Amino acid sequence: MEPEALLVTLDRASPVPVLRQVYLELRRAILAGAIPPGGRLPPTRALAAHLGIARNSVVAAYEQLLAEGFIEGRVGAGSFVSRDMPEPLELPPPPRPRRPPPSRMPGNTAPRPSTPAAARSTTAPCRSGAA
Question: How far apart are CA 64 and CA 12, in angstroms?
């Protein structure tokens, strides 16, 4: 299979790392049937050269797909889409922005809890000299 046939596209302006983009695009193509079970993936060097990225990024994407059972590697023959596909894994949703604690949210005028009396210092000032 030629790398051009995969329709892997990268968004270089995206905050998503290139490795993750390659993984997601290949996973999408496999699940959509664009690369059928038993279908051969392009060699990592060819795909990396086609996309203009480091081969390590493509190798890492292939390794993730292999670990999840989407592809199989055959020594000397290349990488192929698994004939026994795993159940599609749901990708986690993107992380939500963190919210400030309730006591610091705008409009919240509730007083902050004070330090408990037992935690306050109860030592007397130190006097120098003999008593």
Answer: 21
Note the pLDDT tens digit of each residue in 3-59: 545 678 899 999 999 999 999 999 999 998 899 999 999 999 999 999 999 999 999
Query: What is the reported pTM?
Result: 0.62
Please state, in angstroms and rounded to a whole number, the distance separating the CA atoms of residues 102 and 2: 54
How many of the other CB atoms lie within 10 Å of CB of 86?
A: 9
Taking residue 102's Cβ as centre, other Cβ atoms within 10 Å add up to: 8
Please say whether the beta carbons of 38 and 81 come within 8 A.
Answer: yes
Residue 49, phi-psi category: left (phi > 0), alpha (psi -120 to 50), beta (remainder): alpha
Please name which of 6, 76, 70 lies closest in space to residue 38, comparing C-alpha atoms.
70
Q: What is the mean pLDDT of residues 74-81?
A: 89
∠ CA 6-59-5, rounded to 5°: 10
